[in-house]
Structure formats: structure tokens, C-alpha cells
Amino acid sequence: MKIGILFLLLGIVSPFSIFAEKPTTCELKIELKKVHNQKGNILIGIHNKKVKNFANSKPYKKIVIKANESLANVSLPCKKYAIALIHDENNNNKLDTNMIGIPKEGYGFSNNPPSNFGPPSYEKAEFTLKPGVNTIQIDLVYLME
Questions:
Q1: What residue numbers bound the domain in which 60 lies?
Q2: Do the domain assignments include residue 144?
Q3: pLDDT by residue (tens digit) across 23-68?
Q4: CATH number of the domain within which 115 lies
Q5: Rounded to whole angstroms, what are the CA distances from 36 to 42, 46, 55, 118?
Q6: Would you say residue 94 lies in a domain?
Q7: Backbone angles phi, psi at 99, to 5 degrees
Q8: pTM of the model
Q9: Which residues, at least 6 apart from 38, have a Cβ–Cβ distance to it below 8 Å?
Q10: Using CA atoms, how far apart are residues 64 and 43, in angstroms rounded to an integer?
């Protein structure tokens, strides 16, 4: 009797498990362009939720690479993201600014949107990861030399 019930349950559940969505992982290659020097590290913040200000939000994933490296690889669930990064030349884990708030170190965002008087909106930096290998290029911007 118990065996018959077990087979009945397996017969009901099995067809549904065939159609269950499996989590898909995407590969992201981040190519860094226009890095002015090889001092310090590049701090990469990958965001998966809309943020008002990249500087005041915690990223979904952080990656740190040496400034002399021009490529970062990461596996992520396939969905929408936005990237904000800084060239932390003095390794103090923050974007240094002058007295009036102008960045003294390089920075960049996915999609390379213009940043007029502050960081771009999340929507301007947002991109979609699709199954397979995705490559994006981020140009670093230096306002002060």
C-alpha cells in the first residue's frame, strides 16, 4: 500500500519537476579602458537593485582588482545590473574628492553614461546579462590630473 502511494506521488510530482525553471548563471567580462596609471586598485561595485546614489548604496557584489589589470570576470545570475567603479589610487577604499567634491581619482559606470554634476541614474547604467558570456567596456573618467 505504501509503495503504491509513493509511486502515485512520484507520478504526480515528476512531470512538474521537468518544467521547473533552473537557475541560469551568466558570465560577465568587465574590460577597463582609459586607466591613467597602475597605482592602487580598481574597486568594482555590481548593483542589482535600483539605487538613488551609487556612493551611498551597498552593491550586490564587490570585486577588487589591481589597477594594472584590465579585465575582471564574474559569474552572476542572468538579470539586470548596473556597475559603478573607482580607481582607488591610494588604497583607502573610497573615492577621494577635493574640497568642493570633485573626484580626485578615476571613476566609471556601465554603459559609460555622461556624469554631469554627479553620478548618472541607475537606469542609465543598467544592462541585462544574458545566458553565455557577456562583455562590457567601462571607460574610466579622471576630472583632475
A1: 23-139
A2: no
A3: 589 999 999 999 999 999 999 999 999 988 888 889 999 999 999 9
A4: 2.60.40.1120
A5: 12, 22, 22, 21
A6: yes
A7: -65, -25
A8: 0.82
A9: 66, 67, 68
A10: 5
